[in-house]
Amino acid sequence: SETERRQRIAAAREVLGDDVLVLGHNYQRREIVEHADHVGDSYQLSEYAADSDAEHVVFCGVTFMAESADLLTDDEQTILLPSMEASCPMAGMAEALQVDAAWERIERATEGDVVPITYMNSYADLKAFCAEHGGLVCTSSNADAAFEWALSRGDTVVFLPDKHLGRNTANAMGLDSVVEFDPWADASSGDLGDADAVLWDGYCQVHERFTADHVADARDAHPDATVVVHPECRPEVVAAADETGSTATISETVADADREETVVVGTEIHLVEHLDRWHETDVVALCGDACMDCNAMRQVDPNYLTWILEGLADGVDRNVVSVDPDVARSAEVALDRMLEL
Ligand code: 13P
Ligand code: SF4
C-alpha cells in the first residue's frame, strides 16, 4: 500500500541521511515527486546533482537525463535510475551510429560547413559526436544561442533529434532556409543546398499529439486564459500559443499568474496536474485527456524507487548509470560549449 511504501522509503532514507539525493523530473507522477528533494526540468536537476555532496543521486527521470547528471557530477558521485526501461523515444530517434552513417551524406548535400547541435534529449555518444564535429549541446531554453554560436562558425546547423524544437527556434530567429533531412531516404535524394538549418527527423511522441485545434478549443472554453506550451510541440501549436518554454519556464508562468487567472498548459499531463495542485491559479491541460502522458517517464514506478533506496541502505548500488570515460570526455566538451554560451 502507499502508506507502507512511504514508511519503507522513510526508513531507508533515515539510514542514508545526506548520502543520498532524490531528484524528480517535472513529468514524474505524484507518488515519485513527493519523495524528491528537488523537482525540476532536465537541466536544473543535473545542476542540483552537481551542486550536491551526496554520494548517491537517485534520478527519477529518463536515461539521457541520468547520463547528463553523470557527465555533470564528480567521479565520486554515483547516479542511479529506478528503471533502466525509462528511455525517451526521441533520444532513440538519433542514435550516434545512425547519425555518423548519415553525416557524410549531409556534408555532401550541403554547400558550406555544417555544425551539429544536439538537444539535451539525446544520448551521451551523440553529444560526443557533436563535440568531435565542432558542435555543441543545447536545451530548450538556449537553443537560439546555440544556433547563433553554430552559425558564427559554419554555414549550416544540423539540429538533432527534435525537428519541432529546431523549426521553432529557426522560426523565432527568422531563418528562412530550413529543410528536413530524412535519414531513411535514398542517398541520392535530398539536395540540402545552402540551408541555414537541416532538421533531423525526430520528435516527441507526447508533444507531437497537440494540434492547433486543441489551442482553438481551449481559447473557446477559456477566452481569457494564457496558453503556454513546450517547444517540442508542432510549429503551428507554438504559433497559436501565448508563450513557449521548457518545463521550468512553464512552471514559472503558472507561479507568476494571478489566482483568478486560468493557464492552459500544453505539455506532459503529470506536470499539469502538479501545477494545478501546487498553485491557486486554475491550471488546465491543453487537450485534457490521459493520452498526454509519457510512457518513458511512467516506467519509474514508486516501488522501484523503494527498491533502489532499500538497496542503498543495505550497501547495494542498483541500476547505476555511468557513461564510458572516452565518450564522457567528448560529451563534456559539447556540454561545456553550451555552458559558455
Ligand atoms: P525539459 O528539459 O523542459 O524538462 O523537458 C524534458 C523533456 O523530456 C520534454 O519532453
Ligand atoms: Fe522524451 Fe517526450 Fe517523454 Fe520528454 S515527454 S521524455 S521528450 S518522450
Topology:
Layout: H1 2-16, E1 20-25, H2 30-33, E2 38-40, H3 42-51, E3 56-60, H4 63-72, E4 78-80, H5 89-92, H6 96-109, E5 114-119, H7 124-132, E6 136-138, H8 143-151, E7 156-160, H9 163-173, E8 178-180, E9 197-199, H10 212-221, E10 226-229, H11 235-240, E11 243-244, H12 247-256, E12 262-266, H13 269-278, E13 282-285, H14 302-313, E14 320-321, H15 325-339
Parallel strand pairs: 1-2, 1-3, 3-4, 5-6, 5-7, 7-9, 8-9, 10-11, 10-12, 12-13
Antiparallel strand pairs: 4-14
Helix pairs in contact: 1-14, 3-4, 6-7, 7-15
Iron/sulfur cluster binds at residues 62, 88-90, 121, 204-206, 232, 268, 294, 296-297.
Your description of this structure?
The protein is of the alpha/beta class. It contains 15 helices and 14 strands. It has three domains: 2-88 and 297-322, Rossmann fold, CATH 3.40.50; 91-203, NadA-like (Rossmann fold, 3-Layer(aba) Sandwich), CATH 3.40.50; 207-292, Rossmann fold (3-Layer(aba) Sandwich). The strands form three sheets. It has a five-stranded mixed sheet with strand order 2-1-3-4-14, with helices on both faces. A five-stranded parallel sheet has the order 6-5-7-9-8, with helices on both faces. Strands 11-10-12-13 form a four-stranded parallel sheet, with helices on both faces. The relative contact order is 0.16. The mean pLDDT is 93. 1,3-dihydroxyacetonephosphate binds next to helix 3.
